[in-house]
Design a protein that fits this description.
mainly alpha, 2 domains, elongated
Length: 401
């Protein structure tokens, strides 16, 4: 009986220890909301509830994101409160005031090119402000509570993670790179021993799952870069390098998936030249080993040989495979040969990504954050310039008349 109880207790504890990051985040969010409630009630008359609500809406999994959410909340407060008070003054509190408030807030948010987060916060904040019992004093208290809640969220979000954005970026890149190397190792063993279409389908399925992790790596690397732009705790140049490493691992994973697809297509054909081909297996194994060595250097510049060394070794392995495939061209089915040679191109691209020498990484502009995820889809300078030009055109038009 005691052993069963002990196992049950250990299982419950394991549920939390295996999700330590998630537990930390929800614990910080709960504490932040409680603090916002307490501080709001102490500093502002009946301000605890609004502060706790806004804090819960604004706090996110990182300081950078919470600053962005908090900024959006502040913009939403300024716009939504003004529109709400005007509508209540004009129509009194009721169905008409609520409907027009939400309508006008959405239009204003769209006109100012606010991002998705701030666009939602505008009508939400407006409805909080014009809630029951509204008067000038209550409206002011709710506005101050909103700002207080956003501020508490920003402060507590610093403790949501044990690591800074740079450390989290390194962890994500290493995790994705390690999974890619393990999959390639599994593929190499399968090719050497002789694989079936079922085996190749399993590899392709795993490669597709790896592709789905790319947005998480890119988002985290982008957060590290944006965080380093204003935080004195992080180095911007280092963050830029990590972002390029994130793009490089993205290119690597794409090539791994393509290799898995080539092996699957080869297995569909009865004349599977690649299966039990020791040369192909050795090249894939070399690729797996090279990725492992690359991952070991990320975040640790003093680890072993420079990246260029094993990237060049991988290029050499690809060249040797190409030469061996060409020598066997006369006795191999043409389609099977093409699929095998395509693996050489994939290996060379992975080598270019390992030492980050590919023009696709250097010459092509790295994509920034999608405009839909920004607080302001269009910068304030650009919006001011547009408004100024429109005002000048209107003045000229009036003078012309």
């Amino acid at each position: 009986m005691k052993r069963s109880a002990r196992r049950f207790f250990d299982a419950i504890v394991k549920l939390f220890t295996d999700r330590a990051i998630w537990v930390r985040q929800i614990a910080v969010a709960a504490i932040a909301a409680a603090v916002a409630w307490q501080v709001g009630d102490l500093w502002i008359s009946h301000g605890g509830l609004v502060a706790a609500i806004v804090c819960s809406l604004s706090i996110r999994i990182s300081l950078y994101k919470s600053v962005r959410e908090g900024f959006g909340q502040i913009i939403g407060t300024a716009i939504g409160a003004g529109v709400a008070l005007f509508c209540v003054w004009l129509f009194n509190f009721g169905i008409v005031a609520v409907g027009i408030t939400v309508l006008l807030c959405s239009v204003v948010a769209r006109g100012l090119h606010l991002g998705e987060v701030a666009s939602v916060n505008v009508p939400v904040t407006a409805l909080i402000v014009i809630g029951p019992g509204l008067n000038e004093s209550t409206a002011l208290h709710r506005l101050l509570s909103t700002l207080l809640g956003a501020g508490v969220a920003i402060i507590f979000s610093y403790f949501s993670h044990a690591k800074r954005p740079e450390g989290r970026t390194i962890d994500r890149i290493k995790s994705l790179g390690t999974k890619s190397a393990e999959l390639l190792g599994e593929m190499a063993e399968g090719v050497a021993a002789g694989y079936t279409q079922l085996d190749a389908g399993r590899w392709l399925s795993k490669a597709r799952v790896l592709i789905e992790e790319i947005p998480n790596v890119r988002s985290q690397a982008l957060e590290a870069k944006n965080y380093a732009r204003w935080s004195p705790l992080d180095n911007l140049e280092r963050a830029e390098e990590l972002y390029i490493s994130g793009v490089a691992i993205e290119h690597t994973v794409v090539q791994v998936r393509t290799m898995a697809r080539s092996l699957f297509d080869a297995a569909v054909d009865e004349k599977n030249f690649i299966s039990q081909n020791r040369d192909v297996a050795l090249a894939i194994s070399s690729t797996s080993y090279a990725i492992e060595r690359k991952i070991a250097t990320i975040g640790d510049e003093s680890s072993g040989l420079p990246v260029e060394t094993f990237a060049n070794e991988l290029r050499l392995a690809g060249s040797i495979l190409a030469r061996q495939l060409i020598e066997s061209a006369e006795r191999v089915d043409q389609e099977q040969l093409v699929r095998a040679i395509s693996l050489v191109a994939n290996i060379e691209r992975i080598a270019d990504s390992l030492d980050e020498s590919s023009p696709a990484l250097i010459d092509v502009k790295t994509p920034d954050e999608p405009s839909g995820q920004r607080v302001l889809r269009v910068s304030t300078l650009e919006q001011s310039s547009r408004l100024g030009n429109k005002a000048l055109r209107f003045i000229r038009f009036v003078r012309g008349k």
